[in-house]
Amino acid sequence: MLTAVELSAYVALVAVGLLATNLLLGLLMAAGYIPARHWPHQPIKLFRLHNWTGYIALVAVLVHPLILLFSSAPRFRPIDLIAPVWSPVQPTSNVLGAIALYLIVIVVITSYCRRALGRRLWRSIHYTTYPAAAVFFVHGIIADPTVTGRPVDYLDGEKVFVEGLAAVFVLLAVWRIRHRRANRRADPALG
What we know:
The protein is mainly α. It contains 8 helices and no strands.
């Protein structure tokens, strides 16, 4: 039978996969990618898919630490999840996880209210997805999924999964920045 710690680790992997997918969709939309014109030549609604992956990822990100409340060893209290500075194990990793969670909550809530905020303010807030991604990837890499405080095994399958997603995100973010600069040089009115 799965322990609470193991279940939390599996939910975390699902959350990282969903967040990475969401980031990829966001980068594709920002670059003007239209699936009907390009591969797969189908009228896929990226915006809707981006929203739903964001909402489902938020649920997974919230459930991941909540499961730890049912762990018998180590014992987590609600305060350990809200302010993990006092976490019984891995306080640094858990603080990073909490920061990523709070940033993701801000991005999702403000996205839900983007019309009321106005495009310029919403977009400025939405750019916090980049630091949120950096923080949740680091959290996913340095956290011990067994919550025993063992050293990081960077070649562990779970870590390689997170590292691979982080590498893909960095490459796509760099591509997106270069793509935007090239478009600005080609058409200064986009600036």
